[in-house]
User: Fold these one by one.
Assistant:
Number 1:
Amino acid sequence: MTQAYRTIHVPLDGRAYDVLVGPGLLARSGALIAPLLRRKRVAVVTDETVGALHLDALREGLAAEGIDMTALALAPGEGTKCWSALERSTEWLLEQQIERGDIVIAFGGGVIGDLVGFAAAILRRGVRFVQIPTSLLAQVDSSVGGKTGINSPKGKNLIGAFHQPSLVLADTHMLRTLKTRDFLAGYGEVVKYGLLGDAGFFEWLEAHAPDMAAGSEEARVHAVARAVQMKADIVARDETEQGERALLNLGHTFGHALEAATGYGDRLLHGEGVAIGCALAFELSARLGLCAQETPSRVRAHLSDMKMKVDLSDIKGDLPDAAGLMALMAQDKKVQDGKLRFILARGIGSAFITSDVPQSAVMAVLEDALAQR
Ligand SMILES: O=C(O)C(=O)C[C@@H](O)[C@H](O)[C@H](O)COP(=O)(O)O
């Protein structure tokens, strides 16, 4: 029988794992997870939206191999990446008597993956976990690479740990139930991969992303698998972001500041902040003479074609002024010796990391973007 899914291996010494990408993996979850189990019992943490839609299917998939499942459903949304949800999850896992040898399943989007991965990292000083990402953003990005954590009122993802999953099941059927806004927010992370390191992939997206949005399974599998392969390659070379991994942060320096400014809520989803942040990073690159003047327009044209948020004027409500946004950017984890490091680009597919960016140039980009609101 031909395999209906693609396998991408993340070759980390002692912590290697596979990411499976394709339709129908939830139904096979029992058979795929069983080899990892010491006893036929798992604890699942999900959110209420995903739980209502897909928890029964996961239970059935696990039951097919005689695996019992106990589940906790948390409130959906970025607000759940917080201390109180972390406390609730860890206390619940202890109540369920999850042992060091057991497996915890993070069943949801990026919020659940990051939160539950962090809970697994600190529970009994570390238990293994499986990511079953249900959003496009989580499938292409956050479920792979082991960055786990929660937000602080002082900034995004400021409390966390590197803790690699033991397996990732990216079932592309699950993307069918995503709301358009969530799908497009996830697409912000997909396009990031083309922009940072693969001009050919960006061109493919310009031609095929509308098919992805319209529901083409083939296009979705291709895009998720390509993004995951790029991430796996980078993570294998630089697991803990000592260098090259920071490329995956393209768009995030601006994006995280905008998320903090808008309160990590419905005003701006993470992937929307990343898309706007990518447009700003290319604008900054062009103004510094690093890439052709027309490149930012090409990036923005594609985002607009996809009906995504592109500009600061697409964010409703008040925003801080440029100095206020700069102050939020100062909490970025890429800050070194008090100096911000940026991911800029010499062209589409050619991103690089630099701390050689005059503050006045960043201020000017932000002031001009704010002036257009
Ligand atoms: O995996 C990475 O490395 C990334 O930077 C991927 C990002 O898209 C992701 O949002 C990540 O969680 C951000 O990391 P952070 O270190 O900037 O909080």
Note: DSSP finds 13 helices and eleven strands in the chain.
Number 2:
Amino acid sequence: MRVLVTGANGQLGKCLQKHSGNFPEIEFLFETSQTLNITSEEALANFFNQYQFDFCVNCAAYTNVEAAESKKGLAFQVNSEAVKSLAEQCKTLGTKLIHISTDYVFDGLKFSPYVESDAVNPINIYGASKLQGEAMISEHMDRFFIFRTSWLYSEFGHNFFNTILKKAEDRADLNITTEQIGTPTNANDLAIFILNLINVKSDAFGLYHYSNQGEASWYDFARLILEEKQLEYQVNLKATFSYPTKAKRPKFSVLDKSKIENTFKIKVPHWRESLVGLLKKVE
Ligand SMILES: NC(=O)C1=CN([C@@H]2O[C@H](COP(=O)(O)OP(=O)(O)OC[C@H]3O[C@@H](n4cnc5c(N)ncnc54)[C@H](OP(=O)(O)O)[C@@H]3O)[C@@H](O)[C@H]2O)C=CC1
Ligand SMILES: Cc1cn([C@H]2C[C@H](O)[C@@H](COP(=O)(O)OP(=O)(O)O[C@H]3O[C@@H](C)C(=O)[C@@H](O)[C@H]3O)O2)c(=O)[nH]c1=O
């Protein structure tokens, strides 16, 4: 079985690379923005025609939520138009597409976890571009998986977890918002789930929610990182209701995992357990 991973130098891509060694029978091609720019239709066509992929995992995305507000064209180009080209290539060549979407497709006005059939209504450009990307897939092909996830973090790349650790190392004051409730998700957990799905050649296609279990504010998330690293006394951590940003973010974006747990007979780990596990490993 041959699998293409796009955006392989991002944090999810790196987690897939890290765990792919446990699946020696699968041949992976890990392509970065340098080796396969998904906004180039020509590059995609050449690539897909050269190799016969069973699965394509699209980890390539424009993920800067703040910058997207003033880079709408670029956000839509990568998160929507390029996804359409990818979907077309997958459809033409019989490749199953695994795509990652976000909790930011919701407006956050609900008070209970979002299920897959809930109405979408993004409140920032990034969320709107990702939602359009979902539509580009579901309108153009059938053999796809879309996994909406939230608040991804890992030891790799730019994410809230690494930002907090860096600020703690620099002994910077931390003012962290309590205004948003969601679920931090260890990208390693999502990567392992995706690899297992590929390994069993699943064809339970569709849209699913995958984030870790439980709920937290960004403040709760930062606090547990500092407590576990025993840094809470050397850093001045303050809860702040509102933290000024350019982009609006949903106030509530916890995802309901019943569909994915029931379909794939898995138990999704709780965010606290997963965070503590990662902090132990990266010590
Ligand atoms: N991070 C999060 O909190 C969440 C992420 N998601 C989704 O999960 C997926 C993975 O996210 P994550 O790993 O965190 O994101 P990252 O920003 O860490 O990685 C994205 C990768 O995409 C690459 N990329 C950007 N543009 C292109 C392009 N035109 N062609 C090829 N590659 C490109 C980037 O390369 P380069 O750096 O060179 O530009 C980068 O390596 C994305 O779809 C994202 O929307 C969903 C919910 C939460
Ligand atoms: C750095 C920092 C952020 N914040 C706030 C700003 C914001 O409201 C919230 C999260 O900040 P960030 O900018 O790190 O996270 P953000 O870019 O909003 O993260 C999102 O990324 C995209 C890709 C997704 O798909 C989402 O699921 C989500 O993970 O925390 C503070 O309150 N204090 C701080 O020191």
Note: Residues 2 and 57 are 11 Å apart (CA to CA).
